Structure formats: structure tokens, C-alpha cells
Amino acid sequence: MTRRLIAGSLAILLVASCAGAGARDTDRVELLVAAAASLTDAFRDIETAFEDAHPGIDVVLNLGGSSLLREQILAKAPVDAFAPANVAIMEEIRAAGLVSGKARVFAHNTMAIAVPAGNPGGVTGLDDLARPELLVGLCAETVPCGQFTRQVLQRAGVTARPDTEEPNVRALLTKVEQGELDTGIVYATDVREGNGAVAIAIPEEHNVTTDYPIAIMSATSHAEAAAAFVAFVLSEEGRMLLNRHGFRLP
Questions:
Q1: pTM of the prediction?
Q2: 20 to 30 A from 111, CA-CA: which of 42, 54, 99, 197?
Q3: What percent of the chain stands above pLDDT 70?
Q4: What is the DSSP string of 6-29?
Q5: Which residues of 138-168 are buried (b: 16+ CB within 10 A; e: fewer)?
Q6: Are 175 and 201 in contact (CB under 8 A)?
Q7: Measured in Å, how far apart are the chain's first and last C-alpha atoms?
């Protein structure tokens, strides 16, 4: 065989190989998972581990305030699995006929006070959120983080006058980390590993616990892949990853 023929044959093989790879990529299932912003770090680790175990499935995370995600789902946004930070929100989705099967609670969380590194405002507890000279941030009352925060403040008899109300807990935490705020109340898991903010514990008698449910959406076109993802979150490996990020387990 001449060099020209060999080169031509190699070119054909290369094109065929690339075409085959493209076809295989096209065969991957794109699984859309909507999850509470407080699950960001844990679900990114779960995404990686799940995709390693299921190379034919590409998990696409939509992370945000649970209330906003609820509105997207009620508006028929394409979602295969949903994991909000509030059982009541999942119940609304179920009542609308948008949940397939049963929702399962897979994690618990509590609230904590967050301050910037060095704690320049000298915050020591919930009472400090009422100090007028401090810049205080809370989650908006429309999202679970904001609702639970107000329950905490009510239990403690503290009236806070927030300078900002953020659409989700990660937006609030970012402002605390960057020193734009002196303090705020977030989920305990958000400040467990530092990340530029420091946690101050809330006494148990004032704190609240939130449950995280997960379910397959009835409109999914990838029921098997969604079921596999939910099963992974509930599995020992999924529980280990959640626990690693500070979530309490059922």
C-alpha cells in the first residue's frame, strides 16, 4: 500500500472515530435537577460521584432559592428531580400533580449566625442583630431560609431591621464573606467550612430544623435516570457526601 493510500485510510478511520464519539455523546441523558441553594456544595460533589458511576447521564444542576424553583416548576419548566429546603414546598408541587411517586426526606439542617472573618462587628449572639449600627442581612421572607430565620428571631424575642434581604442563602453568605455585611443568618452547613465567613452557634432553644425532601417530577422524560439519581442521594455514598458537608441525616 502506498503512503498516499495509508494516509487516506487513516483519515477515514479518524473521521469515523470522531463521528462515533459524537454519536456516543449524543446518547448521553441530560438530567435536570433543581435543588436548594444551600445544597450547592454537597450536590456538586454528588453530581461528580453520580456521573462517575453513571457515565451515560449528564446531571445539570439548577441551584437557587426553593421558592423560585417551585415557581419555575409550577410554570412547567423542564425538571427531572427536585430537592427543596422545605417539605411544605414539595407538598405544593405534589398537590399540583407534578410529583411522581413519593418524596423522601434525605437531610436535615439548622440555622447559624454568619459573620465576616475577624468578626469586625463584635457579634456574639442573636441580640446583636438588633444593634442599629450593624449592617444586617437576612434571606427574603419568601424563601425557606428567610422563613426559618424569622422563626429563630421570634423565638429569641429579637427584632432585626435588615439592611438587605437576599433571594437565596448563597447570595446572603457572599455579602457576609466579602465584608459588605456585619452579620446574617444562614444555614449551619453554609459556614461550616469557613469560606471567608465564621459561624456563631444559635442556642438550641431558639433554633429550627429544616428537612430536605427529594422526588422525581411527573413530567420527566428520563424517569429511569431520575430514579437512579434519587437512589444515589439516598444511598450510603450519597449520605456520606451530605454528612461530609455538615448535613444531618434521617
A1: 0.86
A2: 99
A3: 88
A4: HHHHHHHHHHHHHHHHHHHHHTSE
A5: bbbeebbbbbbbbebbeebeeebebebbbbb
A6: no
A7: 68
